[in-house]
Automatic annotation (TrEMBL):
EC number(s) given by UniProt: 1.1.1.267
Pfam families: DXP_redisom_C, DXP_reductoisom, DXPR_C
Organism this protein belongs to: Halobacillus litoralis
Catalytic activity: 2-C-methyl-D-erythritol 4-phosphate + NADP(+) = 1-deoxy-D-xylulose 5-phosphate + NADPH + H(+)
List of residues binding 1-deoxy-D-xylulose 5-phosphate: 121, 147-148, 172, 195, 208, 213-214, 217
Protein name: 1-deoxy-D-xylulose 5-phosphate reductoisomerase
Lineage of producing organism: Bacteria, Bacillati, Bacillota, Bacilli, Bacillales
Family: Belongs to the DXR family.
Record's keyword terms, sorted: Isomerase, Isoprene biosynthesis, Magnesium, Manganese, Metal-binding, NADP, Oxidoreductase
GO biological process, alphabetically ordered: isopentenyl diphosphate biosynthetic process, methylerythritol 4-phosphate pathway involved in terpenoid biosynthetic process
Amino acid sequence: MKQVSLLGATGSIGIQTLEVIRLHPEQFSLYAMAFGRNIEKALPLIREFKPTIIVVQDEATKVKLNKEIDHQQVFCGGEGLIEASIADSVDVVVNAVMGSVGLPATLKAIQAKKIIAIANKETLVTAGHLVMEEARKHQVELLPVDSEHSAIYQSLNGEKKSDIQKLIITASGGSFRDKSREELAGVSVQDALNHPNWSMGAKITVDSASMMNKGLEVIEAHWLFDVPYEQIHVILHRESVIHSMVEYVDRNIIAQLGTPDMKVPIQYALTYPERLDLPITEHLNLEDIATLNFERMDMERFPCLRMAFEAGKAGGSMPTVLNAANEEAVQLFLEGKISFLDIEKYIEQALENHDRIHNPDLSTIISIDEETRKSVRFHLN
Ligand code: NDP
Ligand code: MG
């Protein structure tokens, strides 16, 4: 029986993780759960799964929650996320919070030698060098939840790193894949949230539409698999059937295919190295799909992807700035304060205004993250 600590339990990945846990009561039990402020969504989950530890975003939410339930161990904020990640009984930490807020808890969980199933890509983008260094030091493996990285992980399957020619990451293209740059000028929040293939949280759905999600995934892949940016390739693949591939020096390509359903990579990360039945997900029917399409990725059409490659290659503090500016700009877009195309402008501005710091430590990353967010808000006024 694996005891799970689930950070981001009320989110899109969180809820699907709970569906997997619910399917296999013999294998998994929810020891800790963390969420933000959404008490309404959390209450039935708390009643059903009866976690020992509950974490909420702030003191005010804790007060509200305590009026609804009588629970011994309710923690708050970043400290709470750490408590939930390092508790002795916890075997696996599923990090599915949204944004760089997940970073300190990930580092502490690694130090406590927990198995880490990582959905929270912003953590790897903002501080990949720190996370991977810590993972190497403590000999902890990070199991990817992101579907592309789960695909690469499975396609690598014990092969030698020196035999990798390139990683080929597939992109569905998001909500606006058939719109021209001119048409993008007037799109609404509702249009952006309408993803053709995947049902996900609001921020990542906007990231998919801007192609920043793929950019973050390139940086995530660079850190998880220790492959240089020159050997990471992105192609458009509208069907989301091939979730990513690895090409080897001898021209063999190994791909992973599957139903576009996040429960598949979530369960794989939870059961690795074993596999379990997943009866709640449809089998992939290739005869129904019939055709798979691939297109070249256009970096002019999707400047967020270009900026992510550039920030990744520049290294140091640049990915931290890229990520923080993107998180803040997407939030402003969701609040209706800026247009869709403003997102890329704000990111470009933040990157231009930043003087790169070579090997930032945790406190430097946290302060650059805060400064970048402030400067994005400042330009708004
Ligand atoms: P959601 O926005 O749906 O969920 C985010 C979760 O994090 C919610 O439970 C939210 O709580 C919680 N949360 C947010 N801020 C805090 C905080 N400060 N303290 C504690 N909890 C917090 O996001 P997704 O599930 O879509 O994505 C989560 C992560 O997984 C992201 O990094 C995303 O990039 C990655 N990912 C997601 C995929 C998907 O299919 N959704 C696919 C691949 C990766 P509350 O509900 O109370 O606000
Ligand atoms: Mg993905």
